[in-house]
Amino acid sequence: MNESSPILNISIFGVFVLVTLFVVIRASRNTKTAADYLAAGRAFTGPQNGIAIAGDYLSAASFLGIAGAIALNGYDGFLYSIGFLVAWLIALLLVAELLRNTGKYTMGDVLSFRMRQRPVRAAAATSTMAVSFFYLLAQMAGAGGLVALLLGITGAGGQALVIAVVGALMIAYVLIGGMKGTTWVQIIKAVLLIAGAGIMTVWVLGKYGFNLSSVLGAAVDAAPKAGEKLLGPGLQYGKTGTSKLDFLSLALALVLGTAGLPHILMRFYTVPTAKEARRSVVWAIWLIGIFYLFTLVLGYGAGALVGPDRINAAPGKANSAAPLLALELGGPILLGLIAAVAFATILAVVAGLTITASASFAHDIYANIIKKGQAEDKDSEVKVARITAIVIGLVSIGGGIIANGQNIAFLVALAFAVAASANLPTILYSLFWKRFNTSGALWSIYGGLAVTITLIVLSPAVSGTPTSMFKNADFDLFPLSNPGIVSIPVAFLLGYVGTILSKDKADPVKQAEMEVRSLTGAGAEKAIAH
Amino acid sequence: MSTVEHTPSESEPDAQKWVEVQASDDFAQLKSRLRKFVFPVSGLFLAWYLLYVLLADYAHGFMSTKVIGNINVGLIFGLLQFVSTFVITTLYVRHANKNLDPLAEKLRNEIEGGGK
Predict the structure, then answer these.
(1) Which residues pair with A470 in a beta bridge?
(2) Residue A486: inside a domain, yes or no?
(3) The 3-state secondary structure of A245-257, one letter per residue
(4) Between residues A522 and A150, the one the model is more confident about
(5) For residue A142, what are the contacts with CB-CB under 8 A and spacing of at least 6?
(6) How many Å apart are CA B23 and CA B33, to the nearest integer?
(7) Per the structure, how many domains does chain A have?
């Protein structure tokens, strides 16, 4: 009875795909202009966009990953979710509204606003595509592990096929629906994910008389090896001085990275005004916060009801904690639902990443650099975005198949570290520092990107340890797997030094325009009526 | 809500207007109201988060002290991070609705010529 049923799992996922495809096709009927395709006509309401942001942000890594980390490593898993949540305050207070008021489709719009267009746009597009690609690769590779777990497909060929199917579906969503379709997929997925997690949370709590302390106690009893240590910090990161520093570095990248993730930033352009952008973040903060509270219960609940031995023995290890808990609670049907939600999660996140990367290429590189602004808002911009989406989709299918089974945690860490190092300093400087100029922007973007990638390549995540990407090579000169503690301050410093050393005095009129527009919303892109 | 597609060339205020508005008292007021809230609050929540991370990283004994049943100091501290995030969110929205939006709207109408 209590067995996973791959056919049931696939059927439920199939229903999700059909429903979302229907919604995407309906949503695409009004997609005509570039603003429709790339920014959903700026017509979503704050609450809708807030739900979509939660859908974009709560990736499989944060659902399966955090629940699993709490189940196996206890408190240290919980630490992730706090960084992921607190990070939203930076987006709310410092970035969302000002960005909505000054930009059009991409992060590059804001960064290049008062700078020399072409070099800064090229830099912003490079970093957008780097972050999106690392994130995309992690999601696609993660899909392989998930398939093994949920569909019982363990062969490399079968997993490659499923990765290709996920990639093809994602390309279809993005091509047909553009930003509007993608947003609806994220809204549907977020509702399913949060509702599913909420039901399981109440179920787990109900088993323990709605007493969190009893859930924690049961998790301790079920884990004789970790025991009481499960409830306090340090099980995963507290072993050595280096691992503690590594955790501090990760915590910095998490809290500073979110507001620099291009696929999150782009979501702020889908609402009509800055005030709606603010409402979206407020909705996102509540939904994401509540969801992470659910994962706390689910993680310890999985530890208590499934136990670490069964989780570790399952394919996908930590990632299987939440699905196994679903099986334990509600049998194959609940597992099927949770499995479908997990797939939907990957699908929605990769679609969001793909449209972001393709928008940056079409808008920053094609329309503004190659065509020098002549192609902006023309049909060719949308056409280039669609072609780019196909290319990115194919590359990420290939990359996902190659990276399948690799240690992918470092890819997500890398995406957040690049976002925190290359993007956030540049965004903050251009919004708040009058003197900031083109040279400073280039130094902080390229410098932050280069330092982060170099440190990751030289880290133990890539070589020198049994869990590294290249186990047999040994060039781990930098001791930490998370570069943030070095790369973030360095990038801020580079932006400062690059500005000061340059003779460029920054255009005061453009600075006035940007500052007035960012704070008042005058001249901001308006919504489109159909 | 304006529903006309934005056409930059016809309604765009000229460069001089931006400089004028930037130098106006109303704008200085708006800017200072925004910055006086977001900068200190950002510093505060980042410091509070950092304190929490450092305690979780380097004060295992303290964080593992049990308070009620199996609920320990670390869990309470962690949940307080959720509470502070929700509280700051609410306070900022109240501040923005009351003190920022009316002034921003006034300036926006001035710049865009009394609305379209």
Answers:
(1) A463
(2) no
(3) HHHHHHHHHHHHH
(4) A522
(5) A60, A61, A319, A346, A408
(6) 15
(7) 1
For residue A57, give every residue at least 6 positions away whose Cβ sits within 8 Å of its Cβ, in sequence order, or none: A84, A258, A264, A284, A288
Mean pLDDT of A96-125: 94
Residues of chain A contacting B37 with CB distance shorter than 8 Å: 93
Chain A, nearest residue to B60 by Cα: A233
Residue B68: its pLDDT value, please?
Answer: 92
Backbone phi, psi, residue A478, to 5°: -100, 125
Q: Do B64 and A232 touch (CB under 8 A)?
A: yes
Q: Which residues contact A283 (CB under 8 A, 6 or more apart)?
A: A46, A47, A49, A50, A51, A53, A54
Partners of residue B66 on adjacent β-strands: B72
Domain that holds residue A376: 7-404
Number of domains chain B contains: 1
User: Do A318 and A121 touch, CB atoms closer than 8 A?
Assistant: no
Answer yes or no: is A467 within a domain.
no
State how far the Cα of B6 lies from the Cα of A129, in Å rounded to an integer: 28
Residue B9 lies in a domain: no
Q: Does A275 touch chain B (CB under 8 A)?
A: yes
Token output for B14:
């000229």
Q: Does A226 touch chain B (CB under 8 A)?
A: no
Q: What is the mean pLDDT of residues A145-162?
A: 78
